[in-house]
TrEMBL record:
The chain crosses the membrane at residues 7-28, 40-62, 83-107, 113-134. Part of cytochrome c oxidase, its function is unknown. This is Cytochrome c oxidase polypeptide 4. It is a multi-pass membrane protein. It comes from the Bacteria.
């Protein structure tokens, strides 16, 4: 088990303890200015944070068992051991910006509650995501 999965398992345990404490503490509040009972918004947020950190811990744990030891987990590693190809990054793609514009239009549509704006933003987002995924499947002269 690598260090990242240990951190997220520890974070999951912390969130479990805090979620239980939060539900118990808000259930015992007897302040005349507040409603009696459990406060559900914060408790739900803590429960979802618990599930998110547990999901990340499990993912990191499972992928660690299928891969070799990483340089940052090896005590005798040098900086050069982590060097190498990190992946392919498109330097001149406009589609991430177009996707951002689509998300922004959806956000404005939700903020002002205009259904046509939400639909237009979804169409822009789907179109830009499709173009991003098909960007290198089309010859450069057809871009």
């Amino acid at each position: 088990m690598n260090s990242a999965s240990k951190i997220f398992y520890g974070l999951s345990a912390f969130f479990v303890v805090m979620t239980v404490f939060y539900f118990v503490a808000t259930g015992l509040v007897s302040d005349p200015g507040s409603r009696v009972g459990i406060e559900w918004a914060g408790g739900t947020a803590l429960a979802l944070a618990t599930l998110l950190s547990l999901m990340l811990a499990a993912y990191l744990h499972l992928t660690d068992s299928k891969s070799d030891i990483a340089p940052h987990d090896w005590e005798e590693a040098e900086i050069e051991d982590g060097a190498g190809v990190l992946g392919f990054f498109s330097a001149s793609s406009i589609w991430p910006f177009a996707m951002t514009c689509g998300v922004a239009v959806i956000g404005y549509g939700i903020a002002f509650w205009h259904l046509w704006m939400i639909v237009a933003g979804a169409v822009i987002l789907i179109w830009a995501a499709t173009k991003l995924n098909l960007q290198y499947g089309v010859p450069p002269e057809k871009h």
